[in-house]
Automatic annotation (TrEMBL):
Keywords: Membrane, Transmembrane, Transmembrane helix
Protein name: Derlin
Domain of life: Eukaryota
Transmembrane segments: 21-41, 61-85, 105-124, 130-154, 175-193
Length: 295
């Protein structure tokens, strides 16, 4: 009886996860799954979508700056990455809205890709040995966005304590992305650059210097009746839940500002300027007696 109940709960959770998946997250899930299956087909070349120094600088395949996050590699790694992606980004897309999230996604994959190319180019001038070693690893997959989402999610309440995955040990929320990064890098060392750059960009996002990419609702409304109008017709399209978007910085960085307005301190009696103190005191005593009698 309990096993049937647990199976029912799992099925309900899976159905709920599937039904609540917003449009762009749903699109990433399907396109990555299809490209993963195609990667096992001999006629299909996965290298045409990977971002690498050779593809971008030597072969002039500039489209790889936009296509690298959609091309996964390996069924197991793809399954893990898509599960993490859909569970972390669905909430963000529903909060920001599909139109705003598409711009958010595109802006960050371009910046992360350019940062990766810049680092590889820098290694070329520093050490030919390091350049030859790191340039052979292509840059691809959805891991950078996953790490950005983890940084933003676990820095909402950075000082709170949470469990690390299934471990009984508790850690501060703000350290979860870094511990997760070092832990999973042991098993996915080939995806080291994608995850590291994702964490770095996520922390830059927390500083607030990149808030300008989160466009206001008035512009979102214009985009929804122009460029993104065909997407609005889909049932999975997410309209923004927030009235105005501001990235909250960690609470540890907040500065206490004392109240500087006008008013009376607790227990203080304010005497009118144009009234003699004796008259004012009599009124205060009368008010106190009235309140005492009515009580």
């Amino acid at each position: 009886m309990s096993s049937n109940g647990s199976r029912t709960d799992i099925c309900v959770k899976i159905k709920d996860w599937w039904d609540k998946m917003p449009l762009f997250t749903f699109y990433i899930f399907w396109i990555s799954s299809i490209l993963c299956i195609l990667s096992y087909s001999p006629p299909y070349s996965v290298h045409s979508l990977y971002l690498s120094y050779e593809n971008f600088a030597d072969r002039k395949w500039f489209w790889t700056l936009l296509t690298y996050p959609y091309q996964p590699s390996g069924i197991l790694i793809t399954s893990i990455s898509l599960y993490l992606y859909t569970t972390t980004t669905s909430e963000s897309e529903r909060f920001l809205g599909t139109s705003r999230y598409i711009i958010f996604f595109g802006y960050y994959i371009i910046n992360i890709g350019l940062l990766y190319l810049g680092l590889i180019y820098l290694l070329k001038w520093i050490s030919s040995t390091l350049f030859a070693h790191f340039s052979i690893f292509p840059f691809f997959g959805i891991w950078p966005i996953i790490m950005i989402e983890l940084v933003l999610k676990y820095n909402k309440n950075p000082q709170s304590y949470i469990k690390f995955l299934c471990s009984p040990c508790q850690i501060q929320s703000q350290y979860f992305p870094w511990i997760f990064f070092f832990w999973i890098s042991v098993f996915l060392i080939s995806r080291f650059w994608e995850m590291l750059l994702g964490i770095i960009i996520g922390h830059l996002h927390l500083t607030g210097y990149m808030n300008w990419i989160l466009i206001p609702n008035c512009l979102v409304s214009k985009l929804e009746i122009t460029i993104f109008r065909p997407l609005v017709k889909f049932s999975r399209y997410a309209f923004a839940e927030c009235e105005d978007v501001n990235i909250q910085r960690p609470r540890a960085n907040e500065i206490f500002v004392p109240f500087s307005g006008t008013g009376n301190r607790l227990g203080e009696v304010r005497v009118p300027e144009n009234e003699p103190p004796e008259v004012a005191m009599e009124k205060i005593i009368e008010d106190d007696e009235y309140s005492f009698n009515t009580a």
